[in-house]
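Friendly challenge for the regulars: who can give me the structure tokens for this chain first? No prize, just bragging rights.
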Amino acid sequence: MSTKTIHVTCSRDYDVLIGSGLLQKAGSLIREVHAPCKVALISDSNVAPLYGRTVGDALQAAGFEPVTFVFPAGEASKTLATYGDILDFCAKERLTRTDLIVALGGGVTGDMAGFAAASYLRGVEYVQMPTTLLSAVDSSVGGKTAVDLPAGKNLAGAFKQPLRVLCDIDTFDTLPEEVFRDGCAECIKYGVLCSPRLLDIFAEGSAREHIAEVVAESVRIKAEYVAGDEFDTGIRRYLNLGHTIGHAIERTANFGLLHGHCVAIGMVAISRAGEALGITKPGTADRLIAICETNGLPVSCSYSTEELLDGALADKKRTGDTIALIIPKRLGECVTHTVPVSELGTILDLGKETSR
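First reply, four minutes later:
Bragging rights claimed.
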């Protein structure tokens, strides 16, 4: 298949390349945008054994000097401690400002490697190489980098746009089905925001058959939001659909539930609440439930409002005594609904009233 290219326009433009066999071409594709140098290849204990040698060999063949840092896979590693270990590794390997960091892995890897790139020597260039559907359509694009704090998810970080994003869709073939479905939730989110085509694909349960189109359409939509609001102060906040409740579920579960699964629950809950408030077209939540279930995603959780409220109050979208919620008017169109923090418990209750 031919490689699809999505251009991201922001403070520093870059391209997202989507196709098969990109890992084997990583060296030449990176050399198009950066001269040969030392490369800190950051990966996790799941991905490095699968693809680390392929990427390392490709970099070496193109004249780069790769050195590899591997951390234990999982959200539990997305901490200041691991971030500090990456910085120490870069320093011990004597990376300079003309060298490069490459993130090879899922969202945890991309977020931490990007944060390290934003802060090591006050900033070095980096390339994203997402290996999960979730990271391909979400965290690898847009420049948000972060680590978790005990108080909440992604509370320490920086904006740092990558030099290039290489999305090899062949890597999705090695994903456990549950992890692939996790990425489907973020793609469904783009559909709920503004893409009937994505919703049709997921309603049919045919994401794998259309995976290149799914990734390209999702990245295209995200790129439009990033171009309009790079630093997440306005329209880009629409990308947080399902995330206020989703992040609260993640935190309450001590990150024992996958991010996309939590976002799916969050989207359904906020749709239910929207219907109860008269904002959302009746039947929207039911159709969204059907789409999620077709793709093996959960639509409810057993946590109480009290358990979720603390996590929701740690949400980054909170401003003083208010919080901005993204609520569907219907599938394909959403609105911002700002409420006092004191009403958030009621919203959570409304989102659970008709849970199955």
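The mean pLDDT is 95. The longest strand covers residues 322-330. Your move, everyone else.
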